[in-house]
Amino acid sequence: MHYGMVIDLGRCIGCNACTVACKQKNATPRGTFWCKVTTTEEGEYPKAYRKSVPTLCNHCQNAVCVAVCPTHATYKREDGIVMVDQDKCIGCRYCIAACPYEARTFDFGEDKTYFPELEGDNPYESAHEGAFHAGTVSKCILCSDRIDSGDVSTACSQACPTHARIFGDLDSPEMQELIRRGAYVMRPDQRTQPAVYYLPR
Question: Contacts for 69-77 with beta carbons within 8 Å, 24 or more apart?
Fold first, then answer.
């Protein structure tokens, strides 16, 4: 069992539904996005086009973030998902410096309420109070909590209106077939063996 994702760039329309779904599901602090979509202009007139590329933690098999963490706060589960134990994280940010995908964020502990005009806690933020600790690192967890409860899916893949994100066991025949269609990984020069693949347009 090795969980990962194949993202079909030919289907991605850059709508950011994945970004919103991830943020809503994980209630990340204001300014913290585990899932992002970068958009660039490619080609030349009259064949110019807009290219959207969703990005997230690559949950690498050879994860350098795990290797550099001095407290073992960053670790890899048996199913390949890379996690961060915020109770062990000391905020040294070695993992942020080591990650070639810029997939990690640091919580500076600033006031990041979404509703500063309201007095007291609002129900949404209260429901997730204590989930994040100031002075620690956080990142995409591939919705491991849903997987552990039996729902083998991610919020971002479920929200995608064009089904550009395909999540599952990379060892399965279905995922292997997708990868054989010409899927590639970001920054292969880093030899991190990412678990996130991209199908070209």
Answer: 69/94, 69/95, 70/94, 73/136, 73/137, 74/137, 77/144
Q: State the total domains in the chain.
A: 1
CA 141 to chain centre: 7
**Of 80, 77, 95, nearest in space to 136 by CA:** 95
Question: Are the CB atoms for 52 and 38 separated by under 8 Å?
Answer: yes
Of 5, 10, 3, the C-alpha closest to 179 is 5
pLDDT tens for each residue of the chain, 201 residues long: 999 999 999 999 999 999 999 999 998 888 899 999 999 998 899 989 889 999 999 999 999 999 999 999 999 999 999 999 999 999 999 999 999 999 999 998 876 677 777 776 677 777 777 788 899 999 999 999 999 999 889 999 999 999 999 999 999 999 999 999 999 999 999 999 999 999 998
Structural domain span for residue 170: 3-199
Q: What is the pTM of this model?
A: 0.90
* 3-state SS class at 196: strand
Task: Identify the CATH number of the domain in which residue 158 sits.
Answer: 3.30.70.20
